[in-house]
Amino acid sequence: MNYKLFSFIIFLFLIFHPSRLNGQNAAKQQLLFAEAQNSATFQPNESLKIALLLLKGSNTNEEKVKLNLLISKIYSILGDYTNAANYLFEANTNIESNSVFQKANINIEKTALLKSVFLHKQSNIYLNKARYEVNNLTNSKQIYEIKSLIILEELELMLHKQEYKKAKEIIQKNNYSSFLQKENISKKRFLLIQSRINNNLGDFHNNIPILESLKNLINEEDKYFEIQVWNEIAKNYFYQQNYSKAIEYALKSQEILVELDNICLLENTTETLVLSYLALNKEQEYKLFNTKLLTIKTEIEKKEEETINTVYNLINSEYRTNYSLNKTAFTKKLYLSMGLFLLFSIVFGFVVYKKYTYKKRLTEIISYLKVTNKNILSKVEKNEVISKKNSIPAETEQQILYKLKKFESSSKFTNKDISLAVLAGHFETNTKYLSEIINKHYHINFNTYINKLRVNFIIEKLKTEPNFCNYKISYLAELSGFTSHSSFATVFKSISGISPITFIDILKNERNDTQITPSENE
How far is CA 308 from the centre of its chain? Predict the structure, then answer.
């Protein structure tokens, strides 16, 4: 079947015959929905057009939930997590109170989305909600499906937190053979999880049959999966120092990415190419892809920051909505139980309760957002200066400072993917707070803060471990988290006042003098 032609015909059908989307043609709507769902992983843009048009003509809440969920998944495939979040939380607003299966599905999707932007604590919250919904399910098929998705999300969350040994131990401890019985999405995801664990733990021998199984599952209808497979194979070859093969499969992955246009997947394959070309000393290719990688990382950082802020707003809005719904339900029960005889007491009690809960809700929201907007006026000698009071509560500020100190004592700042958005996600705060506290207490911006930590880290290594003075500058740059030799040298000199080469020469001379002096005295 020519899927592109079929999708184009469907698109024209929707534009020129919107009346076809009425209730009398529900069967045709189901057909279009199925087509949009099936083509999401190999023609996401066409699938998105169909789903958005179907959403405009949807009449029931059930249809809206399904379409919002589908649109959210398509945006996730395209790497657009901000739009994915908006449609996912919109699906939640239309869900029926008795639709336990849909609630569980939405909570699982929220887990996956929040994990993608490093909001691990919030991911666990929604995963626990999905576990709770399983207890309310009665259909055995639905119970199995949700439990399977929960297991996969748990494992992927461990991988995202780099807990590879823990994930492997859980797989070995439990019997997950059911994932490998049918050729479906669960099997693909499970094999990808196993491959990533083996690659990161250096178990390349056991990874060979898994990669072969993944290759056998590739088909033209799932480009999203195919990209991930080629990327896993590329990484496998890279870890085994077969850089030519790593480049071959990474480029193969990038060819398909032209059709899919997912910047997050593009980052993974580009990083493999950069490191492989560097290892092969192919300077021209390395520079080309490294420049491309830096541009991609900048764009991803902006998108992550936008997504995190959007998600926090959506979670806060969801909290207020749920609170309002719970309060309404409580009020109805109160009215039914008391009746007309206690009408006056109910009205009086309700007014008092409303005032109390309003204040309580306001306090909780302020505490949640950790925002204060009080201004103070202070006089300094003869000049009056108006200054803004710190918008961050003292307790929150101390917590973030404590986490910064803990972060500084680790070596996580050497991670190339670290950014203001990523660190804010790890600290479970927003980018504004984190940036403001760094500026206030360190008198520098975030990038300078990270660069100072990295330079101090490598200086300490050079001072305490003599072998480090014999390593190449490019290796020291990579070890400390810099993306290139030149950027490392520039930052090192701006912070220490001398170039890394000069610094190493000074250390070597000092050590030689220390060794020579005793023998001279003898």
Answer: 9
Q: Give the burial class of 384: count Cβ atoms within 10 A of its Cβ; 0-12 exposed, 13-18 middle, 19 or more buried.
A: exposed
For 500-510, the pLDDT digits (tens) are: 998 888 888 88
Nearest C-alpha neighbor of 227 from the set 168, 184, 276, 270: 270
Count Cα neighbours of 376 within 13 Å in the Cβ-side half-sphere: 7
The pLDDT tens digits for 132-162 are 999 989 999 999 999 999 999 999 999 999 9
Query: Crossing angle of helices 185-201/204-216, nearest 10°?
Result: 160
Comparing C-alpha atoms, which of 266, 235, 262 is closest to residue 249? 235
Q: Tell me how far apart the alpha carbons of residues 508 and 221 are, in angstroms, rounded to a whole number.
A: 59
- The contacts of residue 126 (CB under 8 Å, 6+ apart) are 107, 108, 110, 111, 114
* Contact yes or no for 257/222 (Cβ under 8 A): no
Q: How far apart are CA 60 and CA 30, in angstroms?
A: 13
- The two most distant CA atoms of the chain are separated, in Å, by 107
| Contact yes or no for 444/460 (Cβ under 8 A) | no
Q: Residue 165 and residue 158: Cα distance in Å, rounded? A: 9
52 closest CA partner among 96, 15, 26, 6: 15
Residues 6+ apart with CB under 8 A from 20: 13, 14, 28
What letter represents residue 82's amino acid?
T
pTM value surpassing 0.90:
no
512: number of Cβ within 10 Å: 10
* Identity at 43, one-letter amino acid code: Q
Say which residue the tokens 């996401």 belong to: 44
386 contacts: CB under 8 Å, gap ≥ 6: 375, 377
